[in-house]
Amino acid sequence: MATMESVYLRSRRAFLLQTQNSDGGWGYFPGKQSWLEPTTYAMLALHGSTGSEAAWNKALDLVGSWQTPDGGFRPTAAVSTPNWTTAFGVTVSSIGGRNGSAQRGVDYLLQIHGIEGDDRMAKIVSKLLPQVALDRDPSLLAWPWQPNAVSWIEPTAHAVIALRLAAAAKIVRPTLAQRVDLGQRMILSLRCQDGGWNYGSRSALNVALPSYSETTAIAMLGLAGRPESEIKAPLDYARKLAATPQAPLASAWLRVSLALHGISNEQDPNQTVSEYDILLAAVEALGAEGGNAQLLQPGAGERAS
Amino acid sequence: MSDPMQDPQSKPEPPPAKFDRRSFLTIAGAAAVAGWATVKFPKPGVPFHRSALAPRSSVAIVKASNYNTELAQRILEGVRLCGLDVKDKKVLLKPNLVEWDHATCINTDVAVVSAALEVFHQLGAAEVRIGEGPGHRRDTYDLAQQARYRSEVGKFDSLFVDLNRDDVSKIKNFADEPEFYFPNSALGADVIVSLAKMKTHHWAGATLSMKNFFGLVPGSVYGWPKNTLHHIGIDRSIVELSRVFRKTFAIVDGIVGMEGNGPIQGTPKQAGVLVMGRDLRAVDATCCRIMGIEPAKLEYLATSNGLGNFYEADIQQRGESIASVRTNFKLLEKFAEIRLG
Description:
The structure holds two protein chains of two kinds. Chain A is an all-alpha fold. Helices cover 50% and strands 1% of the residues of chain A. Chain A is built from 13 helices and two strands; from the N terminus they run H-H-H-H-H-H-H-H-E-E-H-H-H-H-H. Chain A has a two-stranded antiparallel ribbon. Chain A is globular and about 55 Å long. By secondary structure, chain B is α/β, with parallel strands linked by helices. Chain B has helices at residues 21-34, 71-81, 110-122, 140-146, 149-152, 156-159, 184-187, 219-222, 227-232, 234-244, 280-291, 299-302, 322-325; strands at residues 57-63, 90-95, 127-132, 160-162, 168-174, 177-183, 191-201, 205-207, 248-259, 267-277, 315-319. In chain B, helix 2 crosses helix 3 (110-122). The interface between A and B is large, with 53 and 43 residues.
């Protein structure tokens, strides 16, 4: 629990409490449909803070209600099928001690991987398109945004975080550690020439593509726990990005990422809370000094439950 | 006689089947992984559907040499030439806001967005909003900042809806998907104005008013990039999106377009035109002719039967003639075959 809550952090948490929907979730914007992504970040930001317990539990109930029979989580009530946001369902279920729900979510995540890792498809691709120099190592099973699609950086990072938190909550599955390792290696393998990450293509038509600050930050979240030798260079790059002017969302995610890796990064204490973007406010609160970024560290789920 | 632009029941003929679905997914997925896609040119002599009984579509070509010109006046002129009525209607302006690179011109210029906003208010629209869901970037507001939308469009934040994170509703039967989700702001608009950029495209040949609707697909459901569309197939997705969103108007920003390795890494190309019309297929075919591209060689245009007119004879050209503004856009070598003779 944060005992020295800054004005910066307090204002964001207050905003989140004010903007919680009556169903218990949060929309991307005030008054809009509840979605799993902003709900998860709001829950992470509020976790353990004074006066947030009822809001947190109500949100957790809502998330649980979005779990489908196959263990996945719907991204919002209006969408009937699970997708990349299943990782968020596993994350908050693990942190919230809903281990049955988390286990089913883990099983869902473990049976999903990008189609580039499907042996039969890989053979067809190499037969029909021998000239295509695949950018991916198909052995590095990772996660797509949607089932039956190619894997990408961000959904892989979220899935890795979720699985590590589930493991810390004592959920045991034989392939869990291996999938975490493969996912992290996939992330490492797709680093752009400039040192960061974009959505997951290093080049197009032999022209190098630039990285994005926000995706670099999310990739670094997924790489927590890797040996220092593997992440020093990208971490230095993320630190360099954080020291230069960034868009608010990128800046907020970079702060969470650096905090997770034990690097503090001062925020502007006078920066007012965004009144239009709940996800932004939640990520800013999560990465703030005294915030809950460490919740995403392995073992946090165990401590919380 | 039915107007193909107004009849939501009219259904396009399906694109020619080249692979079974499984193979198609495999190839498209591999292509996406490698940042590569097949270039499939329709075979010469393929008998395209000619909408002999359909009315001709009006497409306006208006000259504008730069972004300092009185663009609102030019756009108003084009809208009137095409007979669009937006009085008391909810209008959604959909610019092409993709990436930011100060060295080139990826996005619909902010001056065009501002001018369109002014025009549709002037024409009595009940509501005019701006909406976009970029395909790669999570932070739409940052992109809007970089592209100067936030600084130069008055009250931008209150007018703008991030279509990647909007509330969504389900529609049935999109391509082979039994259900698909779209932003409520797009589904609820009376008119969606595709404020596209005139650009070449390294996979589709060109990206114009129809391809611009990729930004109507919500990232919150389908991710960044919107890989689902690649799996369905880029050309087929363009067609399917145009089938779903029929109450439309197009304003293509060709004042400075992009040639070569578009839609992101190409180079600026001054064409000095705005191209407008209610029939997006006809607008795109006209843009192609201006760019020196044979529209029949672009698969999405060749296969979007029933979604508008395509042949020059079926398009009533208003304003400038194509010949007076034609300027060949440089094409990647693999697209040499689509050059208009």
